[in-house]
Write a structure and sequence with these properties.
mainly alpha; two-stranded antiparallel sheet; 5 helices; 4 strands; elongated; 60S ribosomal protein L24; ribosomal protein
């Protein structure tokens, strides 16, 4: 048994009941009775007619059973220790002043910069030790791989 839904009111239309209207463009409409069909042809808005289910839904009519408020479950937050730090250390870090935190950050940055400078100095010393004649000839990648050098044109 196939039930249709009224195109105007939204009520169920049982078999052998109602009317079917097919518009010129081929769109099919099912109506519960002549009242809904008449309202449709008058271009009435079902949202403004108090007897339609659409109106009742929009204006919250007849939903007294659902008034009981749903209880919401709140997530409870727990603080736990992490593998590298204890809970006390985490709380101390969380509660320290922003000035202390920024000072520690600046100190860490300064240490990192000093370490990078030292690393660069070591690399430079190693480069000088590898090339004792001090020749600072620049060699392209292709020359380093053994490619022949380009010959400049002289006939211009």
């Amino acid at each position: 048994m196939s039930l249709e839904v009224c195109s105007f009111s939204g009520y169920k239309v049982y078999p052998s009941r109602g009317r079917t209207y097919i518009r010129g463009d081929g769109k099919t409409f099912h109506f519960l009775d002549s009242k809904t069909e008449s309202m449709f042809h008058q271009n009435k808005n079902p949202r403004k007619l108090a007897w339609t289910p659409i109106f009742r839904k929009i204006h919250r009519k007849g939903i007294s059973e659902e008034v009981a408020k749903k209880r919401t479950r709140r997530n409870v937050k727990y603080s736990r220790a992490i593998v590298g730090m204890s809970l006390d250390a985490i709380n101390a870090r969380r509660n320290e002043k922003p000035e202390v935190r920024s000072a520690a950050r600046e100190e860490a940055v300064a240490k990192l910069k000093a370490a990078r400078k030292e690393e660069a100095a070591k690399k430079k010393a190693a480069r000088v030790a590898a090339n004792p004649q001090g020749g600072s000839q620049k060699v392209s990648k292709m020359q380093a791989r053994g490619a022949p050098t380009k010959v400049k044109a002289t006939s211009r």
